[in-house]
Design goal:
heterodimer; A: 235 residues; alpha+beta; 2 domains; four-stranded antiparallel beta sheet; 28% helix; B: 181 residues; mainly alpha; Rna Polymerase Sigma Factor, Chain: A; Arc Repressor Mutant, subunit A; 76% helix; 0% strand
């Protein structure tokens, strides 16, 4: 190794990755390396090396009970906000959430006001939710029809994935996701909502689409990446 | 993977499906560790508390980025907390650079080399740090655990900035060699 202050250039990137991972750099340097990382897979590999190794130091962070006020604030912040701006606001939110997912999808849940409905209170307003994810061209709109008890999924664009199926899930509050079955993304389809899912269906219901093995999840719970999710909200 | 690790991974997966009960459970099990992270780095209770809240907002929003089988789930959560706390240090408040932060989180993802048991990894990094001069090893630990930058390390060790940079870069090369072996 050189005795000079100058580190041999061939190691420059390895060192930069270490410095970035450790957080040694000035904000400006950090931002520069961050920008390079986006376009440089070799540098990202160096960073992964350091992050994986340095994570062994995590035990050094002593557990400290979090102040009791944090959870209620967090809950209010995440869950008690009115759906400001409705659909568009949600779209921006969901877009940020799912950049790693495989497909781009938009799910909109519309509840038709003109239709007879089992529970006037639950469906007194039109409900809509949206999600998009980078990396694919799938766009789906879902419309709930109270008369038929079905959700119509209309594909705006979409591509099937070899040896995989998309599966639709309904999530009520804190309950585990319940499968609504495997869905195609290359054609429009009506999905029958089973009575047990229908019972809780309304504002607050989340519909999610995950990518699963052929034929759907074998475990009864989602196992693959979530490519779309929409939480019903009043607009 | 131990039972606890599997359960944490499962809770993160359920958060990706907007399962609030899973999120609350995850918070209950991991908030002490993550508060430990933000408190150690920010060294201010009010700031650490605020940061902890932001960290869990990110976890809720980005749970779908966690890839089971890669980074251990706790390491992933610690990485989210640590990166956020360092952002706070760098800017006094989060820079709001979603792309950069997202990359940070995504890059903490799958690593095929991350297969050794945590205990082995811990003894390995301890052994490798042990091969450095004590003050250099302290500087590496200080950067990782306390979020010290080159400037802070230089002032703590009472050496010029460039000296600290040169010392530490040499030490990092040695460390890399040892950790790769």
């Amino acid at each position: 190794m050189s005795d000079d202050a100058n580190i041999p250039g061939e190691h420059e990137d390895e060192l930069l990755a270490a410095e970035y991972a450790l957080g040694l750099l000035t904000p400006a340097e950090h931002a520069t390396v961050g920008a390079r990382l986006r376009a440089d897979p070799a540098l990202r590999a160096d960073l992964r090396f350091w992050r994986a190794r340095l994570a062994s130091l995590d035990w050094g962070f002593a557990e400290t009970t979090a102040p009791a006020a944090v959870w209620p604030r967090l809950e209010r912040r995440l869950f008690a906000e009115p759906a400001r701006g409705g659909w568009w606001n949600s779209l921006a939110l969901w877009r940020a959430l799912s950049a790693a997912a495989l497909a781009v999808a938009v799910v909109a849940i519309g509840i038709d006001l003109a239709m007879p409905r089992p529970d006037p209170n639950a469906f007194a307003a039109q409900l809509v939710a949206a999600l998009s994810a980078q990396g694919s061209d799938v766009n789906v709109v879902a419309l709930y029809n109270a008369t038929t008890g079905q959700v119509r999924l209309t594909t705006i664009s979409g591509t099937a994935v070899a040896d995989k199926d998309y599966e639709l899930w309904a999530i009520e509050g804190s309950n585990p996701p319940r499968s609504m079955g495997v869905i195609p993304v290359t054609q429009n389809v009506d999905v029958k909502i089973t009575p047990d899912i229908l019972a809780g269906f309304g504002p607050g219901t989340t519909l999610a689409i995950s990518l699963e093995p052929k034929g759907g999840s074998k475990t009864g719970a989602p196992t693959g990446p979530v490519v779309a999710a929409g939480k019903a909200a009043r607009i | 993977m131990g039972t606890d690790t599997r359960e944490i991974a499962d809770l993160i997966a359920r958060c990706a499906l907007r399962d609030r009960a899973a999120f609350q459970d995850l918070y209950g099990r991991t908030s002490a560790k993550l508060y430990g992270v933000t408190l150690r780095i920010l060294k201010d209770r009010a700031e650490a508390e605020e940061a902890l809240q932001e960290v869990y907002v990110k976890i809720w929003q980005r749970a779908d980025r966690y890839v089971p089988g890669g980074f251990s789930p706790i390491s992933w959560l610690v990485a989210v907390a640590r990166n956020h706390a360092l952002d706070v240090l760098r800017a006094r408040k989060p820079q709001g650079d979603d792309i950069d932060v997202a990359l940070d989180v995504a890059d903490a993802g799958p690593d095929p080399e991350q297969s050794a048991a945590d205990r082995d990894e811990r003894s390995r990094i301890d052994r490798c740090l042990g091969q450095l001069d004590a003050d250099k090893a302290d500087a590496v630990r200080g950067a990782y655990l306390d979020g010290y930058s080159y400037e802070e390390l230089a002032s703590r060790h009472k050496v010029p900035l460039n000296t600290m940079r040169t010392w530490l870069r040499r030490s990092l090369l040695k460390l890399r060699e040892c950790l790769s072996a």
